[in-house]
Design a protein that fits this description.
Length: about 240
């Protein structure tokens, strides 16, 4: 199973990186930050191939690309339905975002359906391609925030992703047994609502994943000594 880190950056493009966007194969995105269409195209990935988008939380650098993904499909005559799996409140927040960005866009009849499925704590969402399990974490975004575990049913590959969060033992559960854990490494030292390298180092031996890769780094984390930590970059191929 191919995993492409199309966007590995924080909200502010630190280090010249695109906002969070992880492609699992060609059919699934995990998070879809506002810069995601540019990031996908820079990696030769066609947004029309995406069938499912899994959203960790409702900040614009993680879900703000959805209006562009939907309208790109509309204007390019997409026919395949799109499923968005996200936190409680995703449906309402997405409608408000679309109307803010593109007034009248929610009233358009398209050739495809956008389905929204909202997370329930640790309850799997399954379809023919994926199983998604959300784990609530600690990050203020006006709605519950989640780490997610995504299993590709064709290959059995399991991706764990922290989303944004300060330290919580829920991260041990989402990472346990995963083939790959993409984990926020936002700051060198503890900071509210985000993961820090000090806490990760302290708990490093407790993770049961096969491979851990840091992502979503702030300028201070990019400048810090990360020797011994594998760090994602835009365009990184994993899996």
């Amino acid at each position: 199973m191919s995993v492409v880190v199309a966007g590995s950056g924080d909200a502010f493009g630190s280090g010249g990186r695109f906002q969070t966007c992880i492609a699992l194969g060609t059919h699934t995105l995990v998070d879809c930050g506002a810069t995601s269409l540019v990031a996908l195209r820079s990696q030769g990935l066609d947004p029309l191939d995406v069938r499912t988008v899994v959203i960790s939380h409702l900040h614009a650098d993680h879900f703000g690309g959805l209006p562009f993904l939907i309208l790109d499909g509309q204007f390019r005559r997409r026919t395949a339905d799109l499923t968005i799996v996200g936190p409680p409140g995703t449906r309402d927040r997405l409608e408000r975002l679309m109307e803010t960005c593109f007034p009248g866009s929610t009233a358009v009849t398209r050739r495809f359906t956008v389905r929204v499925v909202e997370h329930r704590e640790r309850e799997p969402h399954r379809d023919e391609r994926l199983t998604v399990v959300p784990y609530e974490v600690r990050h203020a975004s006006g709605a519950p925030a989640y780490a997610v575990r995504v299993r590709d049913e064709e290959t059995g590959f399991e991706l764990a992703y922290s989303g944004d969060t300060e330290w919580t033992d829920a991260l041990l559960d989402v990472a346990d047994g995963a083939d790959l854990f993409l984990c926020e490494g936002y700051a060198p030292l503890p900071i509210r609502w985000h993961l820090d390298l000090e806490s990760l180092e302290r708990n490093r031996d407790r993770f049961g994943c096969r491979r851990l890769v840091l992502t979503h780094l702030s300028p201070t984390a990019l400048a810090a000594d990360r020797s011994g930590w594998e760090t994602a970059h835009d365009g990184m191929r994993l899996g």
